[in-house]
Amino acid sequence: MAENKKVLIAEDSSVIQNLTKKILMMQNYSIHSAKNGEQVMKALEQDRFDIILMDINMPVMDGMECTKAIRALDNPEKANIPIIAITGNAKNYSMEDFKDAGINEYLPKPLNFDQLVETVKKLTS
């Protein structure tokens, strides 16, 4: 089961963040959230997470930039956290771009919540 697995949701849309949070909490994940990449980096300084759901288009520091910053961290446990890219703008990026940035999986918006739960389970087990 997903108990004690900590998910960091990086998403600037409150609606998507709240829906995602509710869906994953029903699966017994512990949820933390951030509105931009800078907040993600601060959260990582203070805590450990099992997975990050990363919106690509966020203010301050976008998801691609943030993923690269995470992959460059000195702490190997934090630098290798599974990251799922979430974006409604995938046509601007190829799977190759995501892989180059260090993203493990990609989910398009609007989110398919069954696919989300399945992907999070796969990457945290």
UniProtKB/TrEMBL annotation:
<dbReference type="InterPro" id="IPR001789">
    <property type="entry name" value="Sig_transdc_resp-reg_receiver"/>
</dbReference>
<dbReference type="Pfam" id="PF00072">
    <property type="entry name" value="Response_reg"/>
</dbReference>
<keyword id="KW-0597">Phosphoprotein</keyword>
<feature type="domain" description="Response regulatory">
    <location>
        <begin position="6"/>
        <end position="124"/>
    </location>
</feature>
<dbReference type="GO" id="GO:0000160">
    <property type="term" value="P:phosphorelay signal transduction system"/>
</dbReference>
<feature type="modified residue" description="4-aspartylphosphate">
    <location>
        <position position="55"/>
    </location>
</feature>
<protein>
    <submittedName>
        <fullName>Response regulator</fullName>
    </submittedName>
</protein>
<dbReference type="InterPro" id="IPR011006">
    <property type="entry name" value="CheY-like_superfamily"/>
</dbReference>
<keyword id="KW-0902">Two-component regulatory system</keyword>
